């Protein structure tokens, strides 16, 4: 004993170091994964706290059970009370507790049912005051908007090491910078986890992950998602894609596709890929705008020159190139473009531009390379251009393939005076620990395949496709407030070795449009593959619903001045002063302009609103007015975004379950609420509202 006391060692084993290791307890301070925001700093992805349940079953942890129980002494009662809260059978919980004690284990956990518990479940169990029952707080990735640019933002989940890890999308691409570094607090404790007095506490500061701000605009993306969901429900297409960009900068304002998934509740995911950047398609007639641009740039295009439509045969091919309708007769090239004539485009390439020179233009529009967009898994299409028939087919978008983002990038040259912009979606990356901007993207000119004069002439020809009676988009694609330049597309789908699929639904229907047509501020490309159509419906109907609805609303939201005289269906308004004024006066003023208003409470004065004075709003917006002594309104049928907006406005501690539209709320309508009150919002599945009937395509206008 004297030797041990003097040396602190036994057989070379340092007892002092061993004792310190036994007493030293380290409590990890978890770093927060970086947030993902839209361009206006609306949260698109964040961490939330969830809880893991465990129970101490070692009786030795209760040295004086008559004074205080620190372990589960009554497994049957404990199991009976916690089982219904975590969704297990009481017998199953009791078995876990009793087997853990019999095996001399210190503590037990409860499998999948005992993890990812909500704060409400934790509070319910804590209220039971059960000895030995404890929680470990953990982080879980949460996406406030549910199905919202899901293929872009991606998915991050907790791995086997209880760390959040990016799996797809930007979450995976930027996983290394979104992931922070945990901190720790180290102290000496006794065997009952009580700290030893006069002992040093060591603190290692955590470093949160970097925040990422996207070019996406939550408002525009929301409009797009609603339109995509509507078309998915009504037409049940195999695939849908839609992209909205600022053609002057290359910024992606909205990007969505179907089928998609809810990252908060995955279910059966049928497509993990972002088709807009990862899935090449034959573009069909939308490619004709680049054929036309090439001919104009070469100086060989005369819109008034005539040709014989129907079919086009050269000695080098066995079967002639056909138009989809063969009764137009002799028409001008201008009318041929409006009618989407394959023959017109084939003749331009073979007789006017020349196949070799046309290939130069296809490469100038960079259809032979990646766009360089800052999204993962980008692929590119393939130019099939070896034989004469392939060269003719390329003129009208058949044979060769491109991705939707390649089409969008090339089309920015048409909308942006000949300058082609590189598309990008990451606006900036910021270190939240210091506030330093680590990276910031700016517009980049990717090339100038055509001149400004050529771009203007192509824009005019595309506007004629919409306005002229012979145009394939006439009466189908139309914006109430803005002039529009566009081009329809109907692309065949390869069936493999058997060739192309046939049948009126077995196509990829598409539209690329720019508005206002004289100087486009927004560019949008929509594709809908194999929709289920009624006998009287054209393939353009689902495409036009998405395009018309999103483009009209997005232009208003972007504060773009309408260039049509007729009254817009969506009005752009300036939010009046509300805070401090009489509730009735503010509500009446907004309601008279068609705005949906919800008054929260029955006070006479407005004390807060979700819209600020002088802010530009749309007549379709939902304005919330909070009065003194606010009361919880009936939120049944509200969208997730509206509910979160209300909760943030009232500074409530909210929790979300499910998706779609609100079905239940834990605070009854009419109950007075105060800052920090806890409320659970329970959502049900999405039930879309049937849109108003769109203009039907006249017979024979599909290209």
From TrEMBL:
Its EC number is 3.4.16.4. Keywords: Membrane. Residues 569-629, 631-685 form the PASTA domain. Pfam families: PASTA, PBP_dimer, Transpeptidase. Pathway: Cell wall biogenesis; peptidoglycan biosynthesis. Belongs to the transpeptidase family. This is serine-type D-Ala-D-Ala carboxypeptidase. It comes from Halolactibacillus halophilus. The gene is pbpB.
């Amino acid at each position: 004993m004297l030797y041990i006391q003097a040396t602190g060692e036994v057989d070379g084993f340092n007892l002092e170091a061993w004792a310190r290791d036994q007493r030293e307890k380290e409590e990890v301070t978890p770093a927060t994964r970086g947030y993902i925001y839209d361009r206006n700093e609306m949260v698109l992805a964040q961490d939330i706290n969830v809880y893991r349940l465990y129970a101490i079953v070692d009786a030795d942890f209760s040295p004086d059970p008559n004074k205080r129980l620190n372990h589960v002494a009554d497994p049957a009662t404990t199991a009976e009370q916690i089982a219904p809260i975590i969704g297990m059978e009481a017998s199953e919980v009791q078995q876990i507790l009793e087997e853990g004690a019999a095996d001399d284990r210190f503590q037990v956990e409860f499998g999948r049912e005992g993890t990812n518990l909500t704060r409400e479940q934790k509070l319910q169990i804590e209220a039971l005051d059960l000895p030995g029952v404890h929680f470990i707080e953990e982080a879980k990735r949460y996406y406030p908007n549910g199905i919202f640019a899901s293929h872009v933002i991606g998915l991050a989940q907790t791995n086997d090491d209880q760390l959040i890890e990016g799996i797809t999308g930007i979450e995976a691409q930027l996983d290394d910078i979104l992931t922070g570094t945990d901190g720790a607090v180290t102290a000496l404790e006794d065997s009952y986890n009580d700290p030893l007095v006069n002992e040093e506490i060591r603190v290692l500061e955590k470093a949160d992950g970097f925040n990422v701000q996207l070019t996406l605009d939550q408002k525009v993306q929301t409009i797009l998602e609603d339109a995509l969901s509507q078309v998915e429900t009504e037409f049940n297409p195999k695939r849908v894609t839609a992209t909205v960009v600022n053609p002057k900068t290359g910024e992606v304002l909205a990007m969505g596709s179907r089928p998609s998934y809810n990252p908060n509740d995955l279910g059966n995911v049928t497509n993990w890929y972002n088709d807009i950047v990862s899935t090449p398609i034959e573009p069909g007639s939308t490619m004709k705008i680049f054929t036309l641009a090439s001919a104009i740039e070469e100086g060989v295009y005369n819109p008034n020159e005539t040709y014989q439509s129907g079919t086009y045969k050269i000695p080098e091919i066995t079967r002639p190139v056909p138009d989809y309708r063969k009764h137009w007769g002799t028409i001008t090239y201008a009318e041929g473009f409006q009618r989407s004539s394959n023959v017109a485009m084939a003749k331009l390439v073979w007789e006017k531009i020349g196949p070799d020179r046309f290939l130069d233009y296809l490469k100038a529009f960079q259809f032979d390379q990646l766009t360089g967009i800052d999204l993962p898994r980008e692929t590119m299409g393939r130019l099939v251009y070896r034989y004469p028939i392939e060269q003719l087919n390329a003129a009208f978008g058949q044979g060769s393939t491109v991705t939707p983002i390649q089409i969008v990038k090339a089309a920015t040259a048409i909308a942006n005076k000949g300058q082609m912009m590189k598309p990008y979606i990451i606006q900036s990356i910021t270190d939240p620990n210091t506030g330093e901007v680590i990276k910031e993207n700016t517009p980049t000119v990717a090339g100038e395949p055509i001149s400004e004069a050529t771009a203007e002439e192509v824009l005019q020809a595309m506007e004629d496709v919409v306005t002229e009676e012979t145009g394939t988009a006439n009466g189908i694609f139309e914006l109430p407030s803005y002039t529009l330049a566009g081009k329809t597309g109907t692309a065949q789908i390869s069936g493999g070795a058997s060739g192309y699929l046939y049948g009126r639904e077995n196509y990829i229907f598409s539209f690329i449009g720019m508005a206002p047509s004289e100087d486009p501020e927004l560019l949008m490309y929509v594709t809908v593959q194999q929709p289920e159509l009624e006998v009287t419906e054209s393939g353009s109907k689902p495409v036009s619903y998405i395009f018309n609805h999103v483009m009209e609303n997005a232009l208003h939201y972007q504060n773009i001045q309408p260039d049509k005289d007729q009254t817009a269906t969506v009005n752009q308004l300036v939010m009046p002063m509300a805070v401090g004024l009489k509730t009735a006066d503010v509500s009446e003023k907004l309601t008279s302009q068609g705005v949906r208003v919800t008054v929260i409470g029955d006070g006479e004065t407005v004390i807060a609103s979700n819209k600020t004075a002088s802010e530009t709003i749309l007549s379709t917006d939902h304005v919330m007015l909070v009065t003194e002594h606010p009361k919880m309104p009936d939120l049944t049928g509200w969208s997730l975004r509206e509910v979160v907006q209300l909760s943030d406005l009232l500074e409530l501690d909210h929790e979300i379950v499910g998706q779609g539209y609100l079905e239940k709320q834990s605070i009854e309508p009419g109950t007075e609420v105060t800052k920090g009150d806890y409320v659970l919002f329970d959502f049900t599945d999405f039930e879309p509202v049937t849109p108003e009937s769109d203009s039907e395509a006249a017979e024979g206008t599909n290209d």
